[in-house]
Amino acid sequence: MLRHEFQPGRLVTGVVLTVAAVVYAGDAGGAWDTPWFVMIPLVTGGLCLAGAVGSLTGRLRRRTGADSERATPGT
Fold it and tell me: What's the whole-model pTM score?
């Protein structure tokens, strides 16, 4: 039994922000040297990708939800 619906946009957001945190932590810990401007496209690109995935998921759910309502009239 599912406790909540799966939301791929939030999954993408979490993965991208986790990667950004690992890159930042590696730079802060001295494991590698990351230029400051790398984080901006990483975070903004990841958030744009998550928004696109969330939008696509919403459209697909509305479309399949409408089809399932038409398939079972009177329920």
Answer: 0.77
C-alpha span between 64 and 72 (Å, rounded): 13
- Measuring CA to CA, how many Å separate 48 from each of 6, 16, 39, 60, 62? 19, 11, 14, 18, 21
In tens, the pLDDT along 12-26 reads 999 999 999 999 999
Distance CA 46, CA 5 (A): 22
Q: Rounded CA gap, 61 and 38, in Å?
A: 34
Q: How far apart are CA 48 and CA 28, in angstroms?
A: 26
**Residue 39 structure tokens:** 């984080």
The mean pLDDT value for 5-16 works out to 95
**Nearest to 38, CA basis, from 26, 56, 29:** 26
